[in-house]
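Deliverable D4.2, example record:
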Amino acid sequence: IRLRGWWMPAAGAHAAVVMVHGGGDDNRTQPYQNGMALIRDLVGRGFAVLAFDLRNFGESDATPEGRTFGDLEANDLLGAVAAAAVRAPGLPIAALGCSMGGATVIQATARGARLAAIVTDSAFADARAVAVPFTVADVGAPRLLVVPFVWSAEWIHGVPLARGATLAAAGRVP
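Output generated by the structure prediction step:
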Protein backbone atom coordinates (compact mmCIF):
# COMPACT_ATOMS: atom_id res chain seq x y z
CA ILE A 1 0.00 0.00 0.00
CA ARG A 2 1.07 3.58 -0.52
CA LEU A 3 1.38 5.73 2.56
CA ARG A 4 1.62 9.47 2.19
CA GLY A 5 3.06 12.05 4.50
CA TRP A 6 5.27 15.06 4.94
CA TRP A 7 8.98 15.13 5.69
CA MET A 8 10.03 18.31 7.45
CA PRO A 9 13.81 18.57 7.80
CA ALA A 10 15.43 20.63 10.54
CA ALA A 11 18.65 22.58 10.13
CA GLY A 12 21.35 20.79 12.12
CA ALA A 13 18.91 18.07 13.19
CA HIS A 14 19.97 15.98 16.17
CA ALA A 15 17.11 13.45 15.89
CA ALA A 16 14.02 12.61 13.87
CA VAL A 17 10.48 12.16 15.16
CA VAL A 18 7.80 10.12 13.40
CA MET A 19 4.35 11.46 14.30
CA VAL A 20 1.52 8.89 14.42
CA HIS A 21 -2.02 10.27 14.42
CA GLY A 22 -5.01 8.82 16.25
CA GLY A 23 -8.00 6.94 14.93
CA GLY A 24 -10.11 9.97 14.14
CA ASP A 25 -7.34 12.10 12.70
CA ASP A 26 -4.81 12.34 9.94
CA ASN A 27 -1.33 13.82 9.78
CA ARG A 28 -2.66 17.37 9.61
CA THR A 29 -4.73 17.34 12.81
CA GLN A 30 -2.63 15.29 15.20
CA PRO A 31 -2.19 15.21 18.12
CA TYR A 32 -5.55 16.54 19.23
CA GLN A 33 -5.79 19.35 16.69
CA ASN A 34 -2.44 20.99 17.58
CA GLY A 35 -0.22 18.78 15.46
CA MET A 36 1.09 21.43 13.12
CA ALA A 37 2.05 23.72 16.02
CA LEU A 38 3.87 20.83 17.72
CA ILE A 39 5.62 19.93 14.47
CA ARG A 40 6.71 23.56 13.99
CA ASP A 41 8.12 23.60 17.53
CA LEU A 42 9.94 20.28 17.06
CA VAL A 43 11.53 21.39 13.77
CA GLY A 44 12.51 24.71 15.38
CA ARG A 45 14.29 22.80 18.14
CA GLY A 46 16.33 20.62 15.79
CA PHE A 47 14.09 17.60 15.24
CA ALA A 48 13.35 16.48 11.69
CA VAL A 49 9.73 15.30 11.53
CA LEU A 50 7.91 12.73 9.43
CA ALA A 51 4.12 13.10 9.73
CA PHE A 52 2.29 10.50 7.69
CA ASP A 53 -1.21 9.16 7.25
CA LEU A 54 -1.78 5.60 8.42
CA ARG A 55 -3.56 3.24 6.03
CA ASN A 56 -7.26 4.06 5.64
CA PHE A 57 -6.72 7.68 6.70
CA GLY A 58 -6.10 10.96 4.94
CA GLU A 59 -4.16 10.62 1.71
CA SER A 60 -2.85 7.07 2.26
CA ASP A 61 -4.33 4.04 0.55
CA ALA A 62 -7.26 2.14 1.98
CA THR A 63 -7.13 -1.58 2.67
CA PRO A 64 -9.91 -4.18 2.75
CA GLU A 65 -9.30 -4.85 6.44
CA GLY A 66 -10.08 -1.26 7.39
CA ARG A 67 -8.96 0.05 10.76
CA THR A 68 -7.27 -2.57 12.99
CA PHE A 69 -6.66 -0.41 16.08
CA GLY A 70 -2.86 -0.49 15.87
CA ASP A 71 -2.28 -4.02 14.59
CA LEU A 72 -1.76 -3.57 10.84
CA GLU A 73 -1.06 0.12 11.39
CA ALA A 74 2.10 -0.96 13.25
CA ASN A 75 3.42 -2.18 9.90
CA ASP A 76 2.86 1.34 8.54
CA LEU A 77 5.01 2.75 11.33
CA LEU A 78 7.75 0.19 10.65
CA GLY A 79 7.81 1.48 7.07
CA ALA A 80 7.75 5.10 8.19
CA VAL A 81 10.70 4.51 10.54
CA ALA A 82 12.65 2.95 7.67
CA ALA A 83 11.81 5.96 5.46
CA ALA A 84 12.92 8.38 8.20
CA ALA A 85 16.20 6.47 8.59
CA VAL A 86 16.90 6.94 4.87
CA ARG A 87 16.17 10.67 5.06
CA ALA A 88 18.07 11.20 8.33
CA PRO A 89 20.95 8.70 8.21
CA GLY A 90 22.74 8.21 11.51
CA LEU A 91 20.21 10.15 13.56
CA PRO A 92 18.24 8.56 16.38
CA ILE A 93 14.54 8.19 15.57
CA ALA A 94 11.67 8.55 18.01
CA ALA A 95 7.94 8.03 17.53
CA LEU A 96 5.14 10.06 19.07
CA GLY A 97 1.58 8.76 18.93
CA CYS A 98 -1.73 9.77 20.46
CA SER A 99 -4.69 7.48 21.15
CA MET A 100 -4.74 4.84 18.39
CA GLY A 101 -1.43 6.33 17.24
CA GLY A 102 0.02 5.58 20.67
CA ALA A 103 -1.29 2.02 20.44
CA THR A 104 0.33 1.77 17.00
CA VAL A 105 3.67 2.98 18.40
CA ILE A 106 3.56 0.36 21.17
CA GLN A 107 2.63 -2.43 18.75
CA ALA A 108 5.39 -1.45 16.30
CA THR A 109 7.97 -1.24 19.09
CA ALA A 110 6.96 -4.71 20.25
CA ARG A 111 7.63 -5.90 16.68
CA GLY A 112 11.15 -4.49 16.67
CA ALA A 113 10.79 -0.95 15.31
CA ARG A 114 14.23 0.66 15.47
CA LEU A 115 13.30 3.53 17.75
CA ALA A 116 15.53 5.34 20.22
CA ALA A 117 12.49 6.59 22.16
CA ILE A 118 8.72 6.38 22.14
CA VAL A 119 6.13 8.81 23.47
CA THR A 120 2.49 7.81 23.71
CA ASP A 121 -0.45 9.84 24.92
CA SER A 122 -3.82 8.27 25.71
CA ALA A 123 -3.10 4.92 24.09
CA PHE A 124 -5.86 2.45 24.92
CA ALA A 125 -4.94 -0.77 26.72
CA ASP A 126 -7.51 -2.80 24.78
CA ALA A 127 -9.76 -1.52 22.00
CA ARG A 128 -12.57 -3.88 22.92
CA ALA A 129 -12.57 -2.66 26.53
CA VAL A 130 -12.85 1.01 25.57
CA ALA A 131 -15.25 0.71 22.62
CA VAL A 132 -18.46 1.09 24.63
CA PRO A 133 -17.35 3.94 26.94
CA PHE A 134 -15.72 5.76 24.03
CA THR A 135 -18.87 5.49 21.92
CA VAL A 136 -21.08 6.63 24.82
CA ALA A 137 -18.83 9.67 25.34
CA ASP A 138 -18.45 10.44 21.64
CA VAL A 139 -22.06 10.00 20.53
CA GLY A 140 -23.87 10.74 23.77
CA ALA A 141 -26.14 7.73 23.42
CA PRO A 142 -27.08 5.74 26.53
CA ARG A 143 -24.97 2.70 27.35
CA LEU A 144 -28.06 0.49 27.00
CA LEU A 145 -28.17 1.30 23.27
CA VAL A 146 -24.42 1.38 22.70
CA VAL A 147 -23.63 -2.12 24.04
CA PRO A 148 -25.61 -3.99 21.34
CA PHE A 149 -24.39 -1.52 18.71
CA VAL A 150 -20.72 -2.23 19.54
CA TRP A 151 -21.40 -5.98 19.82
CA SER A 152 -22.94 -6.02 16.35
CA ALA A 153 -20.11 -3.90 14.95
CA GLU A 154 -17.60 -6.51 16.07
CA TRP A 155 -19.47 -9.80 15.69
CA ILE A 156 -21.78 -9.14 12.73
CA HIS A 157 -19.99 -6.44 10.74
CA GLY A 158 -16.42 -7.60 11.43
CA VAL A 159 -14.91 -4.55 13.17
CA PRO A 160 -11.69 -6.13 14.53
CA LEU A 161 -11.68 -4.75 18.08
CA ALA A 162 -9.68 -7.72 19.38
CA ARG A 163 -6.71 -6.63 17.23
CA GLY A 164 -6.26 -3.54 19.41
CA ALA A 165 -4.58 -5.46 22.25
CA THR A 166 -2.07 -2.75 23.19
CA LEU A 167 -1.43 -3.91 26.75
CA ALA A 168 -0.44 -7.36 25.52
CA ALA A 169 1.95 -5.74 23.02
CA ALA A 170 3.43 -3.50 25.71
CA GLY A 171 4.61 -6.62 27.52
CA ARG A 172 6.78 -7.42 24.50
CA VAL A 173 8.45 -3.99 24.28
CA PRO A 174 12.18 -4.38 24.99
